[in-house]
Structures are given as structure tokens and as C-alpha cells.
Amino acid sequence: MKYVNVEQVEPGDVLARSIYTSEGLTLLHAGVQLTVGMIHKLRRFGVTMLSVKDPLLDEVKEEDVITEATRKDAIRNLSAALQCVQTGKHMDVRGIHKSVNSIVDETLRNRRVLLNLGEIRTTDNAMYIHALNVCMMATVMGVGLGYNTAQLKELSIGALLHDVGKLSVDKDAPAYKAKSMENHHTWLGFHLLRKKHEMSIVSAHIPLQHHEWVDGSGIPRGLVGDEIHDFGKIVAICNYYDNLISPLSEEEETLAPYEACEKIMGLAEKRFDHKMVIHFLRSIALYPTGTSLKLSTGEIGVVIDQNRGLPARPVVRVIRRDQQASRHMAEEHEIRDIDLGEEVTVFISGVME
Question: What is the CATH superfamily name and number for domain 68-283?
């Protein structure tokens, strides 16, 4: 499997990762052979990156912290809950709790696995993929910080629903037109969750605090340092990171994961708590499995595995193909796997488009 720009995908390429709708239904199954029509439709849906299979990487299996079934159920349950909010109906959170229980249990079982955020985003599912990514990152961080199961579930629920207030924003309200914080999605999300007896007040504070910065420059209340709950500090980092790497967010430019991590490091003790930044960087794969890299040796390879504890030093497979061979042919090639955790004189010099 490799992660490529949709403009590089050709008819006949095989999809390596399923694509979901906002309702958690499968738009395209992994294993489908892409056609010209499918590729054009994916472009119209706003897809910019795809996971496709490569004959020389078939035995490489991306380790997932959360199973595909759990991710799919989480999107479905989140969609149902948010539709209730949009239509003014009672939000049934039983599905949310079920998904969170699975996410926490699987994260605890796979605590040695670095998180790869490889879900394919479309204009339809982007909000749900963002919420799920933030939830998974926050839960992985919580495990690393030693939180107990009850704390992890509180963190996970608040992270999954951190943007729920966006669906309650009334753009016709005087408070919105006056740009009052009363109508900001942070406050609206807090008020929505705190009224749910199935939700803890700690979970409700996550939507309220995920835009607060430790230097006091955040919103909606301008809290400083330890005035912000640790869960709010965690989700602030995860939310910002996922927006940075998403081509469908409101950020000015889309960054590669390692670039987004560098930006977050630069904001430690300004926007983000320094301790939380360290735990975040230990949790995420700076070069996700399937990423094409250029090495200091001049060779180009694909990330095939991660080194826990050394997120900037993955295992890279370098493939030398016969220049006359098609990229779909595996007959003429030479393969070499380089573990950058052991090859200390080899460095990553760039990420290939």
C-alpha cells in the first residue's frame, strides 16, 4: 500500500483503503479496481489523496490502532447523533458511548502502535473524519499519559463531539451578527453536552476549551495555563494538527504530517502545553505508512513500518525498478528495506508528492 495524490492515480490501480460517506456507508470498498469514471468522481468529491495497492508492497500491512469496523461504526453513530442536533431532536448518545467503549478498548490493546491517520476525506465525510481523528489521537495520548479507563472514555467522548456546537450556531441570531462569544460553537457545544445526564461535565468542557491557548490568547474565555483542563489541552493540539493536514479544512495551506508536527513544536508554551506536545509527538507517525520519501542517499522509498519511540525514523522500502518496466509490473526490480532506527547515517531529505 502507498499513499498517493489523486492526480497520480491511474485506471487499473487498486484501492487499498475503503472510502466512507458521512453516514458511515461504504462509498468504495478496498480492493476495487479504479476506473476513469471513479477517479473523476473522487476528484469531484474533493478527494486529494488515496491509498492504493502496489504489487511490491502487498505483504506490508498497515497497523491500525482502531479496526476498520470500529471506525465505520463511529462515523455512523456520530452522524446519527449530529443529525439529531441539526434537526433539533433529542440527541441519543447510546451509539456514541458504544463507539467510544470500542475505541478505548482497542487503543489500550494496541498501545504499542503509532497512530496513522490514513482515512480518505471527501467533502461529504470531512467533518466526521476530523472528529474521529481527533478522538483517536486524544485517546492515544490519554493512554500514554496513564489515564484510567473511565478518564479515557470521558476524554474520548468530548474529543469525538468537540465540534458539536457548530451544528447549533444560529447565523441569524443577533449574538452571531455581533460576533458575540455567546453564539460561538465552543459555548454552544458545552451547553448541549452539559444537559445530557449521560455525559460528564468534564466531557462537556472539552468543546468549551479546545480553542483555549495556554498563553491566554485563545477563545472563548482567554484562559491561561492550568486554568485549562488537561483534556482541553490535549484536544486543542489534536484538533489543530488534523486541520493542518486536511486539504478540506479552513487552514490556509495543507501540511504534511511532519510539517504539522514541526509547527506544533514551535507553538509549545504559546498555544500548547509543552508536556502535552511531547506526548502528542510520541503518539503520531510523522511519516505515515505508505508515504513516499526521498532519503539522503538519493534513493526514493515507501514507509512500510514504524518504530515506536522513534516516530521520525520509520522503516523504508527502496525499490529499484527496471526503467523499461511498467509500474504495474513486478518482474524487474530490486528491493531493500532500510530501518532508519538502525541506519543512523541515513536521513529523510523530503516527502514525495
Answer: Hypothetical protein af1432 (1.10.3210.10)
